[in-house]
Amino acid sequence: MTPWDTAAVLAMGEALWQVERGRPAGISGTSQGIVMRDVRVDTAGNRDVSGTCTDFGGRGAGDHNVARAMHIKVNGGKKGGHLNSGKMNRPMDLLSALRSFIRVAETGSFSVVSRELHVSQPTISRQILLLENHYGVRLFSRTTRCLTLTDDGRTLLEHAQNVQTMMDDAHLALSQRQSGVYGHIRLGTPTAFGLYLTRHLPALLEQHPELSVELVVSDSFGDIVRDGIDMAIRVGMGSSGTTITRHLADVERVLVGSPDFVSRHPRPRHPNDLLGLSPVVYTYGTQEPEWLFRKGNQEVRMPMHSAFRTNSSEVVHRAVVEGIGVGLMPLFSVAEELRSGRLLRVLPDWHAPALDLHVVYPGPQGISLRRRAVLNFILSLAAELSAGDVSVREGALQE
Q1: Is residue 69's pLDDT more than 70?
Q2: Do the strands 211-217 and 67-73 form a parallel or antiparallel pair, or are they unpaired?
């Protein structure tokens, strides 16, 4: 067996397309959307051709079989052999389908992704079906109104995003040999994370001396595209069809108070005892703030009525350090004070829900070198953000 030449491959694409529809198997012309894989010719002279025909061209609702392996006798116009819908045959096909899958999972819409990628909606649907056949699992639960990931879909999404990151990193590494990371990037961040990030930025700027970073700090979340933000840190998913979202970390929150404040008040043993401890409450949005605590199978949800409220996480931090009251804070923002003893844990056996941090940036167009460099830098902080400080978490700081 020897590989067919390029012209024969294109001709075979047309032949496959014609034979599949019951037409004579001519070998002239090409068929856009037909991708030939592993094409071989019989050297005995019969010119029987075998190969895999993958149709991603979106030719209409009737094209139900997406990937087929066919054996066709080109000269005789006679079809023979077999049809198989099934596995991905080339890594590039799989990567393309995985990228589409990631965007469908992020946007919750086949039509949005089809517009982004400038292909038909049935094309995206067929790629997802091909992935489901390839892995032998169902990736989405579909209703007329909702498209949600299954457990298997969520597992694949995590791995697919890792694969995409690896591929983008490889592209970045090779591209940087030709051109360095330079230019200006506007990074939107909540106040608490902005203060945390500031401690780490010198390493990024030292690595990329021609890069400049502008931190746009706000505890309210706007539209990053409208506001001209290149990348933003957000709590929760909250993505749209015009943005790409990457999970960063699940950040532990801890209840803390100053040593002076703790010494002047009875030790709380239950979340209900906090109502007498003048909590410092962080307010955001229009909803009444509440704190939720869990311990084993117990759960306590408390509407927070306090004499001191603020919509600034930095003010909450300062108020707690100054002894105004106890506050519920991200562990990364109070780790230094806990290590030094300037703050103490309160109710350490009760746990509040973690903050679900994400990185959001405009998409789906190709990511620039500087944006990729900043994204990789922020993602490198994930382990530290998720783990917190073990010595702080394990210490019995409030007795």
Answers
A1: no
A2: unpaired
Distance CA 147, CA 114 (A): 15
Which residues lie below 8 Å from residue 338, measured CB to CB, with a gap of 6+? 254, 256, 344, 345, 389, 392, 395, 397
pTM of the model: 0.56
Residue type for 245, please? T
More confident of the two residues 42 and 87: 87
Q: Write down the mean pLDDT value for the chain.
A: 75
**pLDDT at 219 (0 to 100):** 84
Give me the amino acid identity at 336.
E
- Chain position carrying tokens 């019969």: 46
Q: Name the DSSP letter for residue 366.
A: P
- The two tokens of residue 96 are 């393309």
CA distance 327 to 311: 13
Instruction: Give the number of other CB atoms < 10 A from CB of residue 197.
Output: 20
> Nearest Cα to 112, choosing from 279, 242, 273, 256?
242
**pLDDT score of 209 more than 60:** yes
pLDDT at residue number 40 = 39
Rg (CA), the chain: 28
CA angle 46, 50, 53 (to 5 degrees): 145
C-alpha 270/C-alpha 205 separation (Å) is: 46
Closest CA to 197 of 330, 386, 381: 381
What gap in Å lies between CA 231 and CA 375, rounded to an integer? 8
In whole angstroms, give the CA distance from residue 298 to residue 328.
19
Burial of residue 137 (number of CB atoms within 10 Å: 0-12, 13-18, 19+): middle
Judge contact between 35 and 96, C-beta under 8 A.
no
Q: At which residue do the structure tokens 């530290």 appear?
A: 384
Length reported for the chain:
399
The backbone torsions φ and ψ at residue 28, rounded to the nearest 5 degrees and listed phi first, read: -100, 150
Say how far residue 175 (Cα) sits from the centre of its chain: 23
User: Is the bond preceding residue 91 a cis peptide, omega within 30 degrees?
Assistant: no
